[in-house]
Specification:
Blueprint lengths: L2 E7 L7 H11 L4 E7 L5 H10 L4 E4 L4 H7 L9 E4 L4 E4 L2 H11 L9 E5 L3 H13 L4 E7 L2 H8 L6 E7 L2 H10 L4 E5 L9 H4 L7 E5 L7 H8 L4 E3 L1 H15 L9 H14 L4
Parallel strand pairs: 1-2, 1-3, 6-7, 6-9, 7-8, 9-10, 10-11
Antiparallel strand pairs: 3-4, 4-5
Length: 281
């Protein structure tokens, strides 16, 4: 009998998760039916109950419902992307940032390699980032958030912390450029929104490629900002490998005894096939 798993979100037509999860399950010889479930926010609670009652094995959660599902389940995490069967209902966690750290480790980097982070956007993955850094930081680290609704973002993400130094800004190219120019130590820019950065064209030429690294979590066309930095030999990457590691970490919750899920060769094989098949983002 096939185990039932799937992805819940809003617009899932371009998601890579079904390919990644299905391919991993094939390679591991798991009998799984992985489906996509586009839902309205009002449908979430009913769906979670019904999927549980039908014996579903696990679910992935993507934008814009990571925080909504966390609230429904009274999760200790503010943002979740993975659900698995608990004793009486769904257990939940976020593998977002652990997956990011595994990818960065493959590049001989870590979030803690940087002195400051510049987050463009403030969705579920940024919430998970804040929680992860709050939990594991052992030295001062600055986080600058740029969002369209700065007051709401500050109310949601502001948190007292021994090591985190948080600042909140309304996104506009000029403000972002000004704040990044002030930073003289190693910085990581994380693009977690579709914000248009073309107005930064003149400023990009002045950035130090030795001090500015960039991670674009959008899986479609690369942002202008990151293409420009790549041309100047600054370290930059998209979030594709992070997504694969997140998926394998999620499957470890579904099959905790499957040791092959921790094999980095599995992640690289899926990445190779994904690029070969030229799957849409």
């Amino acid at each position: 009998m096939q185990a039932q798993c799937g992805l819940i979100g809003k617009d899932l037509s371009q998601s890579l998760s079904p390919f990644i999860h299905s391919r991993a399950q094939e390679l591991l010889k798991k009998q799984v039916n992985y489906q996509v479930f586009p839902l309205k926010k009002s449908q979430l609670e009913k769906f979670l109950k019904e999927f549980w009652e039908k014996g579903g094995l696990g679910l992935n959660v993507t934008a814009p419902y990571k925080e909504d599902v966390a609230k429904i389940l009274n999760s200790p995490c503010k943002s979740v992307n993975t659900l698995w069967r608990g004793e009486n209902f769904w257990s939940s966690a976020s593998t977002d940032i652990e997956g990011l750290e595994l990818f960065l480790a493959s590049e001989k980097k870590s979030l803690f390699s940087f002195n400051s982070l510049f987050c463009l956007g403030a969705g579920g993955v940024v919430t998970a980032l804040r929680d992860y850094l709050h939990k594991f930081s052992s030295k001062p680290l600055k986080i600058n958030y740029f969002s369209r609704q700065v007051k709401a973002t500050e109310e949601r993400l502001s948190q007292k912390s021994q090591f985190l130094r948080q600042k909140f800004f309304k996104f506009c190219p000029e403000t972002f450029a000004k704040e990044l120019a002030k930073e003289k130590q190693k910085s990581l820019v994380i693009q977690a929104s579709s914000a248009d950065l073309k107005d930064l064209k003149g400023f990009i030429e002045k950035l130090s490629p030795l001090k500015t690294a960039c991670l674009d979590l959008n899986y479609g066309e690369k942002a202008f900002f990151f293409d420009k930095l790549q041309s100047r030999q600054a370290w930059q990457a998209d979030g594709l490998q992070m997504l694969i590691y997140q998926a394998l970490l999620a499957q470890q919750k579904w099959w905790p005894d499957e040791k092959k899920l921790k094999d980095k060769a599995l992640a690289q094989k899926i990445l190779k096939e994904l690029k070969k098949n030229d799957k849409p983002s």
